[in-house]
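In the previous lecture we treated proteins in isolation. Real proteins rarely work alone, and many bind small molecules. This record shows how such a complex is specified: first the sequence, then the SMILES for flavin mononucleotide.
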Amino acid sequence: MKTLIAYAGRNGSTRKTAERMAGQIGADAELVNLQKQPTPVLTEFDHVILGGSIMAGSVPKAMQNFITQHQETLLSKRVGIFICCLMEEQIDQYFSHNFPEPLYSHAEQKIWVGGELVLGDHNFIVRKLLKKITGKSEDIHSLNWEAADQLAAAAVTGAKE
Ligand SMILES: Cc1cc2nc3c(=O)[nH]c(=O)nc-3n(C[C@H](O)[C@H](O)[C@H](O)COP(=O)(O)O)c2cc1C
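The predicted 3D structure, ligand included, written as tokens:
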């Protein structure tokens, strides 16, 4: 079964997570950065994993557009979704806001893979904002590889959550 991993992020955590999943799935996985690569031909895939990072509550525009354009086709395939972010208490809201019904209900897995924050990647104003949001003044590295592996394993075995 061929699996497409289509992702969109900003600072590398979503990309790293998607790459990890592709490595776990192996030769049947194809990785596409929706912000940089052309939209893939979906007919080639039985299974699609969608992954996006959250900034100010939303996934990147490229992921929003992909979902809007391909929702009907996605509903005819096995789908797993993941989000990369830091605010655990907001996860349910992020999923429902960014993955519209009926795609959200259709997805077999909805997985939060944690996130990372390297304060040095951002300017003074954004750093201040991020410290306020997270309540922390140091970098955060909390990507959850087990969660990523769970999604990859479901692609290989066909298991449902
Ligand atoms: C400007 C900015 C805004 C963010 N907003 C949110 C947010 O609203 N909720 C949240 O949980 N995490 C938020 N984050 C944390 C990111 O989701 C986290 O750093 C994630 O790992 C980024 O993934 P990426 O490296 O693929 O872009 C924000 C980060 C930045 C830099």
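Summary for your notes: The first helix runs from residue 13 to 25. Residues 3-157 form a domain with the Rossmann fold fold (CATH 3.40.50.360).
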